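(Fold this chain)
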Amino acid sequence: MEQLNLLQRIEKKSPDFSKGQRRLAEYIKDNYDIAAYLTASKLGNEAGVSESTVVRFAYQLEYDGYPELQKAIQVIVKTNSNSVQRLSLSSKRYQEKGVLKSVMYTDADRLRDTIQNGIDEEEFKKAVSYINECQRLFILGARSAAYLSGLLGYYLKMMFDNVFIVDANSTSETLEQIYNIGENDVMFGVTFPRYSKRTIYALQYAKNHGARTIALTDNYQSPIVEYANCTLIAKSDVMTIVDSMVGPLSVVNALVTAIALLRKEDVEKRLMALEELWNEYDVYNRSSQ
């Protein structure tokens, strides 16, 4: 099926649903935050249908079984849930297990999922090429994604002169900072559920003005993908009022490393100059000999 999210698939397929499938569809739409982490059997019990109806429903929506349907429900949770719903959901998820290891296992799963089902090697190489060749690089991540864009910008500023971390205080101020972006520039946007409109608008503006655009986001249904010349997929997850950003952080680390190796001689010269500056002004603590 074309790239449709779960709710869009339900709407498209609803005329063909059986009575039980209609009941299940309504339950999922009204209780997606609960349904997201139920087994097929438990979801059937909650919706008042059989487990086999749940499994058939997944295939009816053209998913490869219930696990894929469950992942699609979880995407809706990440996209549509507010902070109060997230906190309530996480309380249910972690009440039977210790928080520390549960969160760390979730992070490990998202990193593994990013390697296996997320990041595309060719898109990654394209992003490296765009950044290496651009005249100016603008980086934007709003709200919780701001620290990812800040970290990427921090390291790339060591390698390039014209790197700008765009402030996302308001939509108008964001666009003012990139108003003269052009075809020799690159706009790098970072956004994850709940997707920031400011980042989406900025990428749209940059693409409309001829710049190359790179999106770092969680899936190909993300609203920012429409305006990206290059898309980097890194899996995230909902954990209370915070998101699991281990996957995106690893992609940022990989980008910085790849570009540093590509520009090795130039980067070495710049780092030597920086080391002299840091030593002169005693920036870092040095152990006594």
User: Anything to note?
Assistant: The chain is about 55% helix and 10% strand.
